[in-house]
Amino acid sequence: MTDGSTGVEPEPAVAGDLFGTGLAGARQYVELLATAGVERGLIGPRETDRLWSRHVVNSAAVTEVFPADVRVVDIGTGAGLPGIPLALARPDLRVDLVETLERRVVFLREAVEALGLTGRCRVVHGRAESVIDECGEADVVTSRAVAPLHRLAGWSAPLLRAGGLLLAMKGQSAADEIVRDAAALDRAGLVGAEVVTTGGRWTDPAVTIVRATRSAGGPPRPRSRTRPSRRSTGRG
Ligand SMILES: C[S@@+](CC[C@H](N)C(=O)[O-])C[C@H]1O[C@@H](n2cnc3c(N)ncnc32)[C@H](O)[C@@H]1O
């Protein structure tokens, strides 16, 4: 259902509970997605009537599976999903937003600045598999709608500290992907892969996540690159 005057889905009743002090930022982010995000092709025009429910609330609804006070890397963040809603809902998180496409990176930098998140969110321009120098040793690597699990495992594990968590937002395929990609998870040093369903308080259906832990042995860390991958904006 949309607000007849703007075509943008009205704010759902759960938004206040989910975003708390970040609600004003969430409203501003929805506005940015509905305007610059659509104009620049980051969000399809047909998405405006479900920006809150399908994108912004859905992204932040995973909040309960993220430990407190951790550093998160969101790989393939696109227009900032799930990283920006998570940062808005959880002021204790520091979030690196990793994206390979330049025009998305430009939007992300503008959004992070406009939302006053520069102290906690970094925009990192590069491919997930080549940002180890900027983003490595993270506590959590997350992603949403980016790649099959075997590829996410290979990209995410080298960015995690031992004991860190992969939290990949997945749909109905989650359980099948764990079975299908067991060898890739193993090669990446990711153990205990399981499906977690979360966020049913705020979104229906609840969000399905694959959670796995980087083992202490882990995969061999790629050698440090001599040149940093393209560009990143510093925090603060
Ligand atoms: C389908 S979009 C999903 C974007 C966002 N996570 C969401 O849920 O709306 C996938 C995004 O991943 C980015 N991407 C694909 N491969 C990548 C890689 N290896 N490293 C970084 N970003 C990548 C694409 O440019 C695109 O923005």
Order of helices and strands: HHHEHEHEHEHEHHEE
CATH fold-level name of the domain at 63-214: Rossmann fold
- CATH C-level class of the domain at 63-214: Alpha Beta
In the CATH hierarchy, the architecture of the domain at 63-214 is 3-Layer(aba) Sandwich
Instruction: Give the radius of gyration.
Output: 17 Å
Estimate the global geometry from the Cα principal axes.
Answer: globular
Q: What small molecules does the structure contain?
A: S-adenosylmethionine
Share in helix: 25-40%
Estimate the mean pLDDT confidence: 92
Content of β-strand: 15-25%
Family: Belongs to the methyltransferase superfamily. RNA methyltransferase RsmG family.
Binding site for S-adenosyl-L-methionine: 76, 81, 128-129, 144
Function: Specifically methylates the N7 position of a guanine in 16S rRNA.
Region (Disordered): 211-236
What would you note in describing this structure?
The chain is α/β, with parallel strands linked by helices and 236 residues long. It contains 9 helices and 7 strands; from the N terminus they run H-H-H-E-H-E-H-E-H-E-H-E-H-H-E-E. The protein has a domain of 152 residues: Rossmann fold. A 7-stranded mixed beta sheet has the order 3-2-1-4-5-7-6, with helices on both faces. Helix 2 runs antiparallel to helix 4 and helix 3 packs across helix 4. S-adenosylmethionine binds next to strand 2. Belongs to the methyltransferase superfamily. RNA methyltransferase RsmG family. Pfam families: GidB.
